[in-house]
Request: fold
Amino acid sequence: MYNKAQIQQFQTITKEFLQNPHDIDLETLRKVLKFHEYQYYVAAAPLISDYEYDVLYQQLVALEAASPLLITKDSPSQRVGNSLNNAFETVPHLVPMLSLENSYNAEDLIDFDRKAKEGAGVEMITYCVEPKFDGASISLIYENDLLVRACTRGDGIAGDDITQNIKQIKSIPLSIPLSHYGIQQLEIRGEVIMSKKAFHDFNERLKEKNIATLANPRNAAAGSLRMKDPKEVADRNLDAFIYNISFFNLLPGATLPELLTTHSGSLELLWNMGFRSPQKEKRIINGIDNVVEFCNSFELERDQLPYEIDGLVIKINDMALHEKLGMTSHHPRWAIAYKFKARQATTILESVEFQVGRTGAVTPVAKLQPVAIGGVTVSSISIHNEEYIREKDLRLGDTVLIERAGDVIPQIVQSIPALRKGTEKTIEFPTNCPVCDALLEKEEAEAVWRCNNPLCTAQIVERIIHFVSKDAMDIKSFGDANIRKFYELGLLKSVPDIYTLDFEKISTLEGFGKKSVENLITAIDASKKQPLYRLLYALGIRFVGETTAKTVASHLNHLLDLKDFSEEQLQSFDDVGVKVAKSIYHFFHEAQNIQLIQQLESLGLNLIQTEILSKDGSLSGLNFLFTGTLNKLKRSDAEGMAEAKGGHILSGVSSKLHYLIVGEDAGSKLEKAKKIGTIKIITEDEFIALVEGAN
Ligand code: IVH
Reply:
C-alpha cells in the first residue's frame, strides 16, 4: 500500500526520532505508527524492532495524555478499548449479507458455470478463486475515512454491533483515505480468523487454567468476537481477511476507480487501502475446467496453510456480470463455494467412562459409535469435565457432531437436540471414585473432580506409567499394557517395585520370551543412571513438567535438597511461579514421598546432580525460549545447543526470559514477549550465530 518513496520517508522520520527523541507532532507520529502497524500486521514485513515500535507508541501515549482533546478516533492508541461492552446492539446491514451456494465436486462446478454462461450470454468465464476462510464473517462500514461500525452476519439482514471488539484486530485499519479513491462510504465483508498457531496457544492457555479446550479455530474466532471485554479480544491474536466490497458511494463528481471493474481488482484496491485481502492468495483462472483442476490440487495444500480453510470460493471476475446475474434471496449467482472433504461427522454418544489420572483427576470420556473422519476412526473422545457436559448439554444416546481439525485431537462440537427421541439420558457425574470408591472432591475455582486417595489403584498404575514414560525415566519395552498386567498379577504394586521385579515369574508369562525379558532388565537397569531432572519429572509432582524439572534440578546437588527449600526460595528459580513452588514444597514435606525417594536411592537410582551443566559456558545465566516453527533446526536440537553452552530453556514467557527465538507463525508468546519489552526477540539464524559465537 505504501510506495517506495513513502516507505523511505517514514523510515527516515522513524530513524531520526529514535536516534534523537525530539518533539514530534501528534499527527506525524500517528502516521508513522500506522505505517509500522501496516508493515507488521498486513505486509508481514516489519521495518523496526518491537522495542522501537514501543518507544514510538509510548511517545504517542504521553503526547495524548498531555493533550486529551487532540486524541482522534483512529489513533493507534484507541485500539485498546477501555469500556466494558455489556450487550451488543443489533444493527441492519447496508446490503443483506448473503451466503454462498455450495459445491462438492467437478459436476457441481460445471453446472454452476453452465448456468452462469447462459445467464450472462458468454462463451467462457474468467474466475477469481480464493480461499474460503474458516472463521466468522463480519461487515465493516467506513465513513468519512473512519471505521464507524463493525458487525456480525447475524441473520443476514441485521447483525450485532461488535465495533469495539473488531478494533482490537490490528490488521483492520481504523481509518482509510477513502476520498483518495473517490469513495465517500464503503461497506466491506471479510472473515475474522484465528491462525492455527494462535489457536494452539489459546488452547494451551485454557489447558493451563483447567478450562475445556475449543474444538476449532472457527469457534474460537466466533466466540472471541462476542467477548464482553475488548481487552480480552486483544489477547487472542485474531486476524481478518477482507474479501468483498459490498457497497460504496462515490464522492460527488468522482468516477469509478478502474480497479472496481473486476473482483480481482477490488481485492487489489482493498490491499492498496491497507486491508489484508487475499491479494496474494487469489488466482485468476480462465474457464471452469482449469478451476476444477486448481480446486483438486489445492485441497492437498490445505494443511500447509497457517490458517484453516474449508474450501475455495470461485467468483466471476468481471463485475459487470455480477450485476447482470444478480442474486437469489439466499446467494449471489456470480459466486460458488467449493467445499473440501468434511472433517466433521455425526455419530451417537453411547456411554461415558470415567477415567482416573495419576493426579486423581476424574475425566469423563465419551464412547461413540465408531465413525471415520479424515481417514481416522474415532470411537472415544474426552469430554473434559462436568461443566463441559452441562454447557454442551450432552446426553447419553444423543447424536453429536464431532470434528477433527487438522492435527487437533477430535472434539465434540455440539449435541444435536433436534434429533432427540426422548429416550436420551442425562450424564450423571459420579460422587465416588469409579476405581477405589473414595468420595470425590473439587477444589474451589477448579472444574475437575479428584480422587484424593493416595492408595487409589488407578492413580498408582498411572503414576507407574508416567514414571517409565519416554520423557521421564524412559524405560523402553515396558509399555502401558505390561504395567497393567504386572499390577493385576501383584508383581508391581508401586514405583520401587520396578527395580525388584520377579523376572523368573515374568518369563513364565505368555508373550515374555528370553529376549524380551533381557531387554526389560537392561532398560530398567539403565534407567538407574538417568540424570536427576528426569527422576524429578518422573515423580509426577503436580505442575512440574520436564522444563521445570530441568530448572529445579540445576539448583540441586541431591534430590533431597528440596526438603530444605522454602516456597520463596523455589520461586526465585527461573520458570517457577507460586503454584509450582507450593506444589514442590508440599511434595517434599510429605513423609511418604521422602520415604519413596529414599527407597529409590537404596535401590541404586541416581539422585545426584551429575549433569555437567556448562555453567561457565558463555550462555550461562541466559534463559531461552523457542516459539513457532523452526526451519533449520529441530526444536529439541536447538534447545540442546543452548543448553550445551550453559543456557537455560524456560517453558513460558516471563520477565526472567532473555531470548525468544521466533520461528514461522509465532503467536501469543511473541506478543507477550513484546509486551514485557526487555526480552530480545531473535530469528533462528540469529540464534545459530549467537550459539556459534559463544565460547
Ligand atoms: S464471499 C456475497 N469469499 O463463507 C458473497 N465468503 O459459506 C459473500 N467466506 O458467509 C461471501 N471465505 O462468511 C466469500 N473468500 C471468501 C470467503 C467467504 C469465507 C465465508 C463467508 C460466507 C460463507 C458462505
